[in-house]
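// run 5 | inverse folding | seed 20
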């Protein structure tokens, strides 16, 4: 049973971003997931994480703050992405020369600083939410949580690499 849950979790965590980026338009640019699909994917990831941990009834009581922190972090990320899209959208009417001429490196650094501060605060809240539950996990549960963390980090590095490759292709 544990192997099935771990394999299912690994498959979802590793393939979901690939599925999302596999959809393309006629111009071969990746489509974004709509809000319903994004929420469904988040629900599945949360459910699989919870299932992989196989929480006891006592541990279940400590789960709601963890889930809330995961969801809040995702909402904040969505807001950051929307803000970036808005900034990019304002520059869509400009040609490359105008864009370079009108860039404000100080404003960019300030926006980047704000985004990193928000990410840092979100991670602090997530760690704070996980701490009471993590203290109650047995060694097997901790091992499964560690495996999930490795899969998530692998997934994140793949996304970063795809974005870099896409940016290089656009240049």
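// decoded
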């Amino acid at each position: 049973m544990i192997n099935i849950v771990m394999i299912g979790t690994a498959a979802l965590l590793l393939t979901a971003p690939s599925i999302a980026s596999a959809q393309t338009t006629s111009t071969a640019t990746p489509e974004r997931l709509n809000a319903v699909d994004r929420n469904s994917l988040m629900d599945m990831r949360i459910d699989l994480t919870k299932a992989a941990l196989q929480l006891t009834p006592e541990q279940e009581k400590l789960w709601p703050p963890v889930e809330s922190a995961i969801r809040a972090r995702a909402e904040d990320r969505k807001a950051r992405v929307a803000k970036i899209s808005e900034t990019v959208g304002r520059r869509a009417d400009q040609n490359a020369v105008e864009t370079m001429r009108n860039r404000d490196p100080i404003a960019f650094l300030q926006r980047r600083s704000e985004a990193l501060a928000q990410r840092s605060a979100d991670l602090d809240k997530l760690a704070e939410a996980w701490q009471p539950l993590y203290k109650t996990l047995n060694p097997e549960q901790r091992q499964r949580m560690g495996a999930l963390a490795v899969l998530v980090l692998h997934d994140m590095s793949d996304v970063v690499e795809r974005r870099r490759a896409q940016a290089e292709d656009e240049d």
